[in-house]
Amino acid sequence: MPARRVRRQPARRKPVRRVKVMPHVVPTTRFAPSPDPLTVPTKWVKFIFALFLLPLCTVLSQTFFTAFARATVAERLWTAEEFWFFSLGAVLWLIAFFGLPRPILVYVFGHELTHAFWVLLLGGRVSRFRVGRDGGHILTDKNNFWIALAPYFFPLYSLLVIALYGGLSLFADMQPYGRLLYALIGATWAFHFSFTCWMIPKNQSDLSDNGTIFSLVVIYLMNLLLLSAMLIVASPNITFASFGADMIQNIANFAHSVVTLAERFARGAQG
Is the pTM of this model over 0.70? Predict the structure, then answer.
């Protein structure tokens, strides 16, 4: 009798998750299984956590703008060429952003590359990378809110410019091109900021999947931390230690204000 062929079932692959950027509005109708009444949705936990992060956002904002005002007025940071060339690069990009066709493909490539970088940074694996003018996505075996939100607070092109400048400095004298460096950092950071503000209102699944309020708080906080670091590096009289001391003092003042307000409320309730 002829031998019979035995068909082997293909080995099951580990399921992958899709991280996708949607330049256009996504459909609002979604189908989801009914939740377990004994299970607290993750979005609820993230929303509560976001509420606790709001005071930190307030204190960090106060500390940043106070330090920025001190650096620009008292220390005359605005007269430094680093400030002017950074501002020049940012203004030139904003003119291009509002006056010329937007380079969607460049943004989508950077967006998905940032997703992929953070996947690798957090120990994951990227099995597919797709980019097009209509959007893009990566396929990965790892996903969390850091990976999903990274493109909105991680200025990839600015960091690539700094890394390229630092790498070339190992082989050549790059000091004469310092002004160009500041201008490119300003342009690429404005690229990151303008596209972030432009994309957030477009119902991105990166934000909605993690809770919109939580996502916006994380994006604001991380971008403000980045700006604070840039201010400290640019200002010779502001250090991480002094900025941290101001931050601690503002936290203490904020806590004192909350306690005072609570005491007044308690007295009013008793009276």
Answer: yes
